[in-house]
């Protein structure tokens, strides 16, 4: 029997009026809040008004087949946990439906009413376990996301300190060095040393700016991811080691700033891996968005790798970043033919 303060909601769907009444009364006697429907259209109407905790579905309704109804429920976002009710001799069909997600099945035989309470009780316990696991997973993802955001904020602070603190000081020293050069114009040896100091300072300033950009890559509004990927491709191309470009026909907008940061980090890691390990001559970063999802990919024409190397730390970090924002990451690599990292982020309405 249900132990919660609020009775569990169960919807029974069967076109046999007598059997429908017997099943609903049996479950009500166990303390459940039970409603019934005698057709597929009545089922859809009930689901439109509210979701039960559990659905008992006859697979052979007069106006619709059980499998077609389940597909329609999934398509319309009305899917609920369910048990299938089958006629005698349809056990194979029931097992096939369990592969589609049914929690259990009951057969229309003389033992139906005796078995029904136990089957429903087990199914509801399974529903509770699944919900608890989903809640725990969501909580873990939220905490991981908060930790990553804290880390990103700290990196932004360090980047700003590098740019505004050390970077400005080095620039000031370079200006002083330029003034010193005029003072030693008549001393060739000292002038050469001042020139070398100035060159070292300019290289140091460039390194500090590069570090600052890497620590604080995402700035601005909803186009920040797109703009940062443009800069990443340009910066990589300017190194002169590989051809690198962004394949993105139009500006892509993403209002979720946290997701934008993680997607950029994934692209950044993929590009860095290609530079370090692939010996590629070309890297293409692609970004596409449609109504359902945003797709990011990084493709190189390098030497690729075998499957055993797919467990490397860099790929593990990318997969972790993707999981935190609810994205899927896939790796495609063929030795001698290059590597593609694909990340798909479903977009919420």
Walk me through the topology.
Elements: E1 9-13, H1 17-29, E2 33-37, H2 40-49, E3 54-58, H3 66-75, E4 82-86, H4 91-99, E5 104-107, H5 112-183, H6 188-215, H7 224-238, E6 243-247, H8 257-278, E7 282-289, E8 293-300, H9 313-324, E9 328-334, E10 338-346
Parallel strand pairs: 1-2, 1-3, 3-4, 4-5, 6-7
Antiparallel strand pairs: 7-8, 8-10, 9-10
Helix pairs in contact: 5-6, 7-8, 8-9
Task: Explain the overall architecture.
The chain is 55% helix and 17% strand. With 349 residues, it is an alpha/beta fold. Among the domains are: 9-109, Rossmann fold; 220-349, Histidine kinase-like ATPase, C-terminal domain (Heat Shock Protein 90, 2-Layer Sandwich), CATH 3.30.565. Helix 5 runs antiparallel to helix 6 (188-215), helix 7 (224-238) runs parallel beside helix 8 and helix 8 packs antiparallel against helix 9. The two termini are 39 Å apart. 26% of the residues are buried.
Task: Output the keywords.
five-stranded mixed β-sheet, Rossmann fold, alpha/beta
- Relative helix content: 40-55%
Q: Mind telling me which CATH architecture of the domain at 220-349 this is?
A: 2-Layer Sandwich
User: Total helix count?
Assistant: 9
Shape: elongated
Please describe the biggest sheet, giving its number of strands, its sense, and whether it closes into a barrel: 5 strands, parallel
Cα distance, first to last residue? 39 Å
> What would the CATH topology of the domain at 220-349 be?
Heat Shock Protein 90
Structural class, judged by helices and strands? alpha/beta
- Percent strand equals 15-25%
CATH superfamily (homologous) name of the domain at 220-349: Histidine kinase-like ATPase, C-terminal domain
Give the C-level CATH assignment of the domain at 220-349. Alpha Beta
Task: Please give the radius of gyration in angstroms.
Answer: 31 Å
Q: Low-confidence stretches at least 5 residues in length (pLDDT < 50)?
A: none
**In which order are the strands of the major sheet placed?**
2-1-3-4-5
């Amino acid at each position: 029997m249900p132990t919660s303060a609020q009775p569990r909601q169960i919807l029974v769907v069967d076109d046999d009026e007598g059997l429908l009444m017997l099943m609903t009364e049996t479950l009500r006697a166990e303390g459940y809040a039970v409603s019934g429907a005698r057709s597929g259209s009545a089922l859809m109407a009930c689901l439109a008004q509210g979701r039960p905790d559990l659905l008992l579905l006859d697979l052979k309704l007069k106006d619709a087949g059980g499998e077609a109804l389940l597909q329609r429920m999934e398509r319309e976002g009305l899917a609920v946990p369910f048990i299938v009710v089958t006629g005698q001799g349809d056990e194979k069909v029931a097992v096939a439906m369990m592969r589609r997600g049914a929690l259990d099945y009951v057969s229309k035989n003389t033992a139906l009413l005796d078995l029904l309470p136990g089957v429903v009780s087990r199914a509801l316990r399974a529903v509770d376990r699944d919900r608890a696991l989903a809640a725990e997973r969501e909580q873990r993802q939220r905490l991981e996301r908060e930790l990553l955001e804290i880390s990103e904020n700290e990196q932004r602070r360090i980047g700003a300190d590098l740019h505004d603190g050390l970077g400005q000081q080095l620039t000031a020293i370079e200006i002083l060095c330029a003034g010193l050069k005029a003072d030693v114009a008549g001393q060739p040896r000292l002038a050469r040393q001042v020139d070398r100091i100035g060159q070292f300072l300019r290289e140091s300033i460039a390194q500090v700016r590069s570090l600052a950009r890497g620590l604080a890559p995402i700035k601005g509004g909803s186009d920040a991811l797109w703009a940062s990927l443009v800069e990443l491709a340009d910066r990589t191309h300017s190194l002169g080691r590989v051809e690198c470009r962004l394949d993105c026909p139009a500006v892509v907008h993403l209002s979720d700033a946290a997701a934008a940061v993680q997607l950029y980090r994934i692209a950044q890691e993929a590009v860095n891996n290609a530079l370090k390990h692939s010996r590629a001559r070309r890297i293409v970063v692609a970004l596409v968005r449609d109504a359902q999802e945003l797709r990011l990919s990084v493709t190189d024409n390098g030497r690729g790798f075998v499957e055993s190397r797919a467990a490397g730390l860099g790929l593990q970090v990318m997969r972790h970043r993707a999981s935190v924002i609810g994205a899927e990451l896939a790796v495609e690599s063929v030795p001698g033919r290059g590597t593609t990292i694909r990340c798909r982020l479903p977009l919420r309405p």
